[in-house]
Protein: M23 family metallopeptidase
Amino acid sequence: MSARKLGMVTYRVLWLVFFGLMAADLCFNLSAVPWWWNFAPAVLAYTVIILVNRWGGAPHRRRAAREPVEVAPPVTGRWSALNSPADRTPSHGVHGYGQTFAIDILAEPEPGARPAFRWLWPLARRPQDFPAYGAPVLAVADATVVRAEDRQRDHLSRTSLPGLLYLMLPEGMVREVAGVRRILGNHLVLDLGDGTYAAYAHLRRGSLTVRAGDRVRAGQILARCGNSGNSSEPHLHFQLMDGPDPDTARGRPFTWRGIGVPRNGETFDAPPPVTAPT
Structure:
């Protein structure tokens, strides 16, 4: 087991210990133990994750300086970018899970087609209300499938202030403790060769058309966009990594052929693949 993988396992175990101590204190009133002692595992968990992200998750300087890997866009049609590495790195605020150069994209077929954020009401929306839900997701290159997961449910959106707080606090913490599968939701990882792996996250349950070990061609439909995992609304989370396991991989920069890397809020049109296999 690598040092980074061991660190991630330790981080999750410490949170489980913290929740166990809190539950025991509430149920059995452990007055003999100082109340602040219950928070020691949480403090240690944060310390571990900081160390992992600082020394185990950040890309090596020489690796980070490598030229972006050019691949085809993973979607077709009109989309907009969010949490883009064109604006900052790490794009999602952390290097963990290979997210240094990750990007989120949302379908924008026409102005107003995507429901806007609301402060209070509605608290949540069905995933079917968003144009990204069910949109085809394409292979960005000829590759081999190395990870495939599509059994997790597509949940309601978190596009209100209460919903977003729920996603960021209790739900997000539970998913962190449960591991990378619960964060990515239904997902795929492709081996593109030359030490490069492409990850697609938050896919629709039951939509995968491939499984681990399959060979795929660039432009082939792999799955459908969904709202599984740590997701506020249906969208595609895409990233390149230097390994197949997001728990231990480091992010690699990418550029989409004919598009580049769209900035936050930028709308782009992805053409259909030239030769999409049947």
In short: Helices lie at 3-28, 40-57, 61-64, 161-178, 180-184. The mean pLDDT is 85. The chain has five helices and 13 strands.
